[in-house]
Every structure is written in C-alpha cells, then in structure tokens.
Amino acid sequence: MFLSEIFYSIQGEGELTGVPSAFIRTSRCNLRCSWCDTKYASWAPEGTEMTIDEIVSEVGHFPTEHVVVTGGEPMVARGIHQLTRRLKEIGKHITIETAATIFPEDIACDLASLSPKLSNSTPDAAVANGWRDRHEKRRLQPEILREWIQSYNYQLKFVIVSERDLEEIHDLFSTVGCEIKSAKVLLGGGLVSRVVRGSRRRRKRTWGAGGRWWC
User: Which CATH code is given to the segment(s) 2-159?
Assistant: First the structure.
C-alpha cells in the first residue's frame, strides 16, 4: 500500500474527541479540494510503499486500540479492505475518514467519518490542471453516502464558508432520503460560527423537530 505516514496522536473532532489513536494516512485521492490541508496526500501524493504486515506491525507499537484510517482518500487505496480486516482481527477499533464517493463493500469499520464535499471545495480551473470537472462530477454521491449511513455507525463533517453551504447540506440530506440526527453532524471552517448565527431561519427549517436533521 502507498502510505503518506503513520503516526500517534489524539483525535480532535467528533464523538471520539480526545481519544489517543494510531493514524494511518494513505496517499492519493480521487478529489482535489481547493482548501485541502494535506496536499502531500492528494494534489501531489508522496509516500512509501508498505506491506500490510509492515503497517500492522507499526500500528502495534502504539499504546491504543483505536486506529484512524485517513488520506488522501483511503477508499481508493489498493489493499484497503485487507488492511482493515487485519486490524479488526487484532482487536482494533477502526475509524475510516472518507468523502463517501466510493461504496464501502462491507469494509471493516466501527465509525465512518464521512465528509461529503460541498461546492466550496471545487478548485479553480486555472490551478486544477484538468481536475475541476472530475472533482465536480465526483464530489457528491448521495446513493453511496446513503449506504455508508445505513451500514455503519457514522458522523458527518462539512466545511462551511457561506450561508449557501447550509442550503446545500439541506438539499443533500433531502436527496439522501434518511433521517440524520443532529448529534451526527459536525460543521467546520473558519466562518462557521458567523454563518450559522446569521442563518437562524435557515437553520431552524433544516434542523427540524426534536433536534434532528430531517430529510
């Protein structure tokens, strides 16, 4: 497998915030987000080829049962199903961070950390070297997202830069067509507090009754 890095840290978001974990970062991605903060694993993938045995051995050095498989986009990594199966065999709790553009196909996973990409992620054509159209076609896959949500414990993460993003989330949930609890939704981005405060009417309509996101 082509990996960018393996390291030990503390999870910083979602339901496992504060949990010490081993992180396995695969290199390569099927998207090109404009605001990507790990371009060394996506726009210009760097890394080392490692066998699954080598990866499992390295992870075993860390004092934790939690493993986060991230990227890049880990679901495009050759051998990803075999890796997660091996990790489960040795008793690891597996979080997979994915944009949910590829079907899970029964992959071993305890928490699916799903980050569907809104239109704010689409790169400028001048710098994307032909990737803008490919990114736009791939970034949202409601049918695939639905399968992840229905098959696994999950959390949803969105990068918010404007009020329009909240409307996009509402439209996406409507298309996905299943109930999504508010506790499962994480909103991030430098402008998120200002955007949400300034969109109380939109938020109330989108949030629905009982403190949940409704499709």
Answer: 3.20.20.70
